[in-house]
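User: Is it possible to get a 3D structure for a protein together with its bound compound? The compound here is 2-acetamido-2-deoxy-beta-D-glucopyranose. I've pasted both below.
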Amino acid sequence: MLKLIFLIFLCLLLIIHSTNGASFRLCSSEQLTQFVGRCGPIERELVDLRNSTEDYYPKPEIVNNMTDLCQKVANCYGSIKCAESIDKMNQNKFQCDEDRLMFGEVPECIKWLFKEIYMVDYYDCLKDYDFLSYNMETKRKAFTSGKSCVFQVFNESQLFECDRDAVELIHKNYDLIVDYLTTDSSKKLCRGVNPLYQKLQCEVIKDKWLSMDSELINSGNNTQEEIAGFLELGNVLKECMSHSCLYTKKEKSYVDYRQKETKFRNSPFVKCATKIYEKKINTYEKYPCLKNQEPKEKTECKKLMLEELCGKEAADNLEETQEFFEFALGNNTEIIQ
Ligand SMILES: *[C@@H]1O[C@H](CO)[C@@H](O)[C@H](O)[C@H]1NC(C)=O
Ligand SMILES: *[C@@H]1O[C@H](CO)[C@@H](O)[C@H](O)[C@H]1NC(C)=O
Ligand SMILES: *[C@@H]1O[C@H](CO)[C@@H](O)[C@H](O)[C@H]1NC(C)=O
Ligand SMILES: *[C@@H]1O[C@H](CO)[C@@H](O)[C@H](O)[C@H]1NC(C)=O
Ligand SMILES: *[C@@H]1O[C@H](CO)[C@@H](O)[C@H](O)[C@H]1NC(C)=O
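Assistant: Yes, that's possible. Here is the predicted structure of the complex:
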């Protein structure tokens, strides 16, 4: 009886093993030495290249080298037919598939899509879905029910806007891409496709904001509407950045600083100071109380002067201006540079 049970057990083991026929035996020590010695260095080269590639849209040469290395690593591990080696091959395949969604034309295309969504002036269907929501469930619903809209936009895009191979890759991997676009990555490591796609959404806003910023600086004389538009877009950008783990504190503070500086440059206080300078008003003579050493009284005196020379608005603006000075002269030199 015991013999029978043992036999059945043995058969079961054999059956299980044979249904698992695609799997490989554990590597022999010779095979291990082979895959560490031969494939290890190629894999390390690939890992280093991946790690040192900071831009999602690197030079084509880098993308080509990455693709080549992926092929080489897969071939190398695949040629050693034992379990650990095949595992390594599969791990690398997974990473390399991710690379194609992270570097090159695909992220460039995703960014282009976000730009179209923001502009909504060409593809009408983009208006119908909440693609930009920071609520991941809402965003997932948008990308799921708006699938045919997204495809239509990509299909109608021009070659120079979106590479055809990238469009095809997005078609093939749409569900996976939707996962990457709509999974909250804030609690995970800030790496991989997911945080990158969240950042691409902000990069579109950032590009627009930067161009407005340099326009404001270059023109020097800005209308209230221009300034209000710039400040509003800055708030949209800051909101977006706060949902991305890939922006540094410095990058976020820079937006804040530019907003404060723009407000300052166009403030009633600065207009008043310009007036005082241009009209060569001798303020110390006219307002002896400015010499007062008491901070509180000195401030009252400045306010009186501003109000009399330029109106209440300028006086009310004094505190905000002082805050800006403290900010700019404080420990923020690394932001301002
Ligand atoms: C990537 O490179 C940096 C420095 O160059 C290093 O600190 C980091 O550990 C590397 N990451 C990986 C995954 O190798
Ligand atoms: C790409 O590969 C070529 C040939 O192996 C090499 O000469 C070149 O330096 C590589 N470029 C980069 C950016 O890694
Ligand atoms: C877009 O193009 C792909 C491939 O060419 C095709 O399979 C798909 O049906 C097209 N989608 C739309 C909405 O035209
Ligand atoms: C700035 O623009 C306003 C209105 O656009 C104009 O009245 C004013 O003269 C301009 N100032 C300078 C210094 O160019
Ligand atoms: C500025 O930095 C200095 C040293 O770097 C520090 O002692 C000081 O407290 C800082 N001031 C503020 C307002 O953070």
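Confidence is low (pLDDT under 50) at residues 9-21. The radius of gyration is 31 Å.
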